[in-house]
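#lab-general

N.A. 3:47 PM
ok so I finally got the sequence cleaned up, no stray characters, all 134 residues accounted for. can someone with queue access submit it? mine expired

B.Y. 3:52 PM
send it over

N.A. 3:53 PM
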Amino acid sequence: MRNTLVVAGALLAVTLSGCASGGTPMTTPSPSRPPFQTTSPLPTAGPSGTAASVPADRWAAILADLSGRGMPTDDVQLVSARSVTWNSGALGCPKPGVSYTQALVDGMQVVVSVAGTTYDYRFGKSGRPMLCER
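B.Y. 4:20 PM
back already:
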C-alpha cells in the first residue's frame, strides 16, 4: 500500500511539473486590430439573374402601383427586367427592423422609368410588386 502511494505521488509531481512555465512570465499580447464589431452590416453581393420579358400580369401590377402613387402610366418605359433567385424574402431590398423568410426565393426584378424617375420593382413567387426604395 505504501509503494502505491509513493508511485501515485511521484506521478502527480511529474504531471504537475509539466504544466509549470519555464520561468518566463506570461504577458497579454496587445491587440493589433480593433475589437470585433457586430453593428456594421455585412457586405452583400447582389443576386445575379438573366434577362427576361415581363409577364402581362406583372406589368399590369406595376402600372396599378404607379397609378396608386399618382404617377402617369401612359409613358412608362422598361429599363430592365431579369429573373432572379433572391437570398431571402426581402427580395434583395431589406427594410430595417423587419424579419424575412431566410430561404431562396425565385422571382424577378423590373426597373421602369416614369417622367425621369426610376422605380425598382421586385417580385417573389406572388404577382404582387414590391417597390425597392433605397
